[in-house]
Design goal:
The chain has about 350 residues and is an alpha+beta fold. Helices cover about 40% and strands about 20% of the residues. The longest helix has about 30 residues, at about 60-90.
């Protein structure tokens, strides 16, 4: 067994011992037992699940041993939780309690659907070696436009399209300025995902918002090419949507990438046959991507003769709407507990 696999198996054993002690301590509290089930065995954020996500990076023999250890740990914890819950249910009710009275329902809170999508996307790209980074929402015009190869007369620079805070400063219109900050702070190789909130002077209607969320991806190294970009985006789309999704690249234009592409996927609602959601085309736009323009490398001090890279950007609000069937983007910005209650168990 490799050293990494041995460490992961040891970590599983430690988690199992820790969980057993905490389950025994919480044996009289049904809500505490449920929280422990989610903490250790949750499908997306469970601690045991987190260790088992390392399986794809291990050699086959080590993968088999870690998988067996993980299944044993999950079975043991399921057994302990089931026994504790059964014992709790068998306890006699307190004397004089009116068992016909409905319990008071308590709001437990939930992660926002955009937060769920951010975590899922970053987790997928983490498997490809990309690290999550963030940057400020108030940016310089240089980082937001000039260093990203926007020409001086580009419409995005106009005050009718962007929220300016003063001369040379604005609320960022995309998360791409963080690419500039990362490339100026670190030397290649660079592999990052960049989620965050952005601002543009858009109407607030069912499909647009002046405040929206994006996630960027940036990979810079020697020998990076368009094949790497297509492979990474296809891997992501099939993990995020479904293994059988069709991925289509269409030529496009962005100031900071060359060549550039719009990436479409077969509609998850109709499986590509055509429906109102995809406007009967069978495809939905997922993200924009391309190879980093050499002019951007020159602006941040990276040698374009030595290094190449790819980048992508996608709207997280739209991704959340696709994933959870949300018909109106305005629902994401309303403090309606009935709406957010749907996502209590989605984490």
């Amino acid at each position: 067994m490799s050293a990494k696999a041995a460490d992961l198996v040891a970590a599983l054993a430690g988690l199992e011992r820790e969980a057993e002690e905490r389950i025994h301590a919480a044996a009289r509290d049904g809500e505490a037992l449920q929280r422990l089930r989610t903490e250790y065995l949750g499908r997306k954020a469970g601690r045991v699940t987190g260790i088992l996500r390392e399986l794809p990076a291990l050699p086959p023999e080590a993968r088999r041993e870690l998988g067996q250890a993980g299944n044993q740990a999950k079975a043991r914890l399921e057994q302990l939780l089931a026994e504790a819950e059964a014992a709790l249910a068998a306890r006699p009710a307190a004397a004089g309690a009116d068992l016909t009275m409905p319990a008071r329902r308590q709001w437990r809170g939930a992660l926002h659907p955009v937060t769920l999508v951010v975590d899922e996307i970053c987790d997928i790209f983490r498997e490809l070696g990309l690290t999550r980074v963030v940057g400020p929402e108030a940016e310089s015009e240089r980082n937001n436009f000039t260093a990203l190869n926007f020409p001086p007369g580009h419409p995005a620079l106009d005050a009718q399209d962007s929220f300016y805070l003063g001369p040379g400063a604005l609320l960022r219109t995309h998360t791409s300025p963080v690419q500039v900050r990362v490339m100026e702070a670190y030397r290649p190789p660079i592999r990052v995902t960049i989620p965050g909130r952005c601002y543009r002077r858009d109407p607030f209607d069912a499909s647009h918002s002046p405040v929206f969320h994006q996630v960027e991806g940036l990979v810079v190294d020697e020998g990076i090419n368009l094949v790497d970009l297509k492979a990474a985006i296809t891997f992501f789309a099939r993990r995020f949507l479904s293994p059988g999704v069709t991925v289509r690249f269409r030529p496009s234009f962005f100031p900071f990438t060359e060549p550039s592409a719009e990436v479409d996927v077969s509609c998850p609602q109709c499986d590509g046959s055509g429906c109102p959601v995809c406007k009967h085309t069978g495809f939905m736009e997922l993200l924009g991507a391309g190879m980093v323009d050499p002019a951007v490398f020159e602006a941040v001090g990276v040698d374009p003769e030595r290094f190449t890279g790819w980048a992508f950007g996608m709207g997280l609000d739209r991704a959340a709407m696709i994933r959870y069937g949300i018909p109106d983007i305005r629902m994401l910005f309303e403090a309606d507990m009935r709406f957010h209650a749907q996502f209590v168990d989605a984490a």
